[in-house]
Input
Amino acid sequence: MKLVPAKIVGAAVALTVVLAPIHRAVAQSAQAAATPEKVILDTDIGDDIDDAFALALLLSSPKVQLLGVTTAWGDTDLRARLVARFLAETGHDDLPVAAGPATHASSTFSQRRYAESYPDEKWANGASFILDQIRRYPGQITLISIAPFSTVAAAIDADPATFRQLKRVVIMGGSIHRGYGDLGYLPDHGPEPEYNIYSDIPAARKLFDAGVSLYVMPLDSTQLKLDEVLRATLFSQGTHTTNALSELYEQWTASTGSPTPTLFDAMAAAYVLEPSLCPTHPMHIRIDDQGYTRAEPGTPNANVCLDSDSDRFFHFYMRTVLGGSGQAASH
Output
């Protein structure tokens, strides 16, 4: 038998000791990548159409586990009915739906007929649902809020310590350098108050002061136009998801007279699935009395995406929704 020199044995043992943590780190990283991220969606679905597109994206991706949907702002019970019908029609009727506190809203509920065709019921309390899920999964949940922050503020008021145990909050909201209509083709006319912020300024301030990790997708990076070619491709696929989106789109465009949706809210959902679509920068944001989101010197309280690539976004969106979990609808 040939003996292995002790020096070689010792080197092999030492190499094993050095490599073991690396192997463990690689294995843990692979496991984390394969584990869907737990998310809750907070939405004012039913007015503009982009909320429905954001919900469809989350339902279509294996990268997230949607724990439930809460509704915010205005007639939150009717919004809950819309969500419940959308979930039922797309094969996700097992997901919880909860309604936040009702508020006054001046916006038009453009998809009312879709929502009213679903039975009403006693909906769970939206703020309580968010807090209960955080207690169940402390440090693991991403809250995606794409609405005025009335339900979010109710959760903060009820239990700020539990709210701080969110992994992070990702929102569509604000305007840093670009306002509505600034698409990069002409000189920007500067920031302006954005709907989700100015609709409930006290609630928005509570979120920015809540002490949670906050990621902000403002108007600067979310004015993503779903053009005629993309709409035709999407709505012609005949899946349960695209059929539901098509019906909601028809009601929205009939109500607004606009043929082209802007998918502001879908970027917040897409960021959770693919952060490279909207790189963020740490900033200190102050919300003034008019609802402007002012970037000022100071300790960062948010990570803000100031620019995005529309082509990349839609390539990702279309592939996810059309190649995701939606099955062809029966005829």
Remarks:
- The chain has one domain: 36-323.
- DSSP finds 14 helices and ten strands in the chain.
- Residues 36-323 form a domain with the Inosine-uridine Nucleoside N-ribohydrolase; Chain A fold (CATH 3.90.245.10).
